[in-house]
Design goal:
Elements: E1 9-14, H1 20-37, E2 43-46, H2 52-62, E3 66-73, H3 85-93, E4 97-103, H4 108-120, E5 124-128, H5 140-149, E6 154-157
Parallel strand pairs: 1-2, 1-5, 2-3, 3-4, 5-6
Helix pairs in contact: 1-2
């Protein structure tokens, strides 16, 4: 009896501050890309940040896949805006695995470590990125560069009419 092949492991990186309309555009684009990558449901890897990561987790679930979460630091949940914690908690509860980087406190070093761990766990990366350079070592552009340096196939998605929200969202 033949066994089904393991699902493709797809990681995500991308902007946190997306407008609600852009989140819908990104969800549609992610559904298309995941179908392009594999006819079977994928296994996602995400840090579950607001914006891209959470949209990705929902799309993976909606397409029959599963995901694991790489948490940057032990205090990561505390850094999330209280208005968004319930969504984070609900998605975290649905993860098949939760991995911690070992950092106690959130910050750039923890986020870089989480991005490295995410890339260690995937066969492909999907990045929701507007093409602009980031302002710190854990920015989307740096994760894309790191994936490409490791020869991880990387797809960049930025739908027409996509916009980033103001940072005070």
């Amino acid at each position: 009896m033949a066994t089904d092949p393991a699902p493709v492991r797809v990681g995500v990186a991308g902007h946190i501050n997306l407008t609600p309309a852009t989140e819908r555009l990104v969800a549609d684009a992610l559904r298309v890309e995941l179908r392009r990558i594999s006819a079977r449901p994928v296994h996602g890897v995400t840090c579950l940040a607001a914006g891209t990561d959470q949209v990705f987790a929902r799309v993976v679930l909606a397409t029959g896949g599963s995901y694991e979460v790489v948490l940057p630091a032990l205090d990561y949940r505390d850094t999330i805006d209280p208005a968004y914690r319930a969504a984070f908690d609900e998605l975290l509860d649905r993860a098949t695995l939760v991995v911690h980087t070992g950092h106690r406190n959130s910050g750039t070093a923890a986020y870089v470590a989480a991005n490295r761990e995410l890339l260690n766990r995937v066969e492909r990366l999907v990045a929701v990125w507007d093409g602009e350079p980031g302002c710190h070592a854990a920015s989307t552009d740096r994760t894309v560069r790191m994936a490409r340096q490791r020869s991880i196939p990387t797809t960049v998605i930025w739908p027409a009419d996509a916009r980033r929200a103001s940072r005070d969202r």
